[in-house]
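Quick one, tokens below:
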């Protein structure tokens, strides 16, 4: 749980009149982590099975360097899926941190209203 020192929107959120539902942010976070896991599986499992060999392309394919070009392209795709998965993970973590912040704000607002109702403020 965040200490409330993080404000994902800076001062822009103050008095803006919009509502944030931390539980919706958490649900989105779960979906993004699930998407990240699918990207990782695609890059690590699905693409790793796709390897081209000289025997697969014949003499002309070997002479045209089809195998190297294909395998290099797959390596690039795997690299990009790995980087994409990292970015999705960071995005999900940021959403989770925002949900922590808004939960803290909700708790503070509730305490402040309760104290006002009791006449403590």
């Amino acid at each position: 749980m965040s200490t409330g020192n993080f404000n994902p929107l800076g001062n822009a959120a103050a008095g803006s009149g919009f509502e944030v539902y931390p539980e919706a942010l958490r649900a989105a976070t779960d979906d993004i982590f699930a998407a990240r896991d699918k990207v990782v599986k695609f890059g690590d499992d699905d693409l790793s099975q796709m390897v081209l060999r000289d025997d697969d392309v014949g003499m002309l394919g070997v002479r045209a360097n089809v195998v190297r070009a294909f395998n290099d392209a797959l390596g690039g795709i795997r690299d990009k899926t790995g980087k994409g998965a990292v970015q999705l993970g960071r995005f999900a973590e940021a959403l989770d941190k925002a949900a922590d912040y808004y939960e803290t704000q909700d708790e503070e607002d509730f305490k402040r209203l309760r104290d006002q109702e009791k006449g403590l403020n």
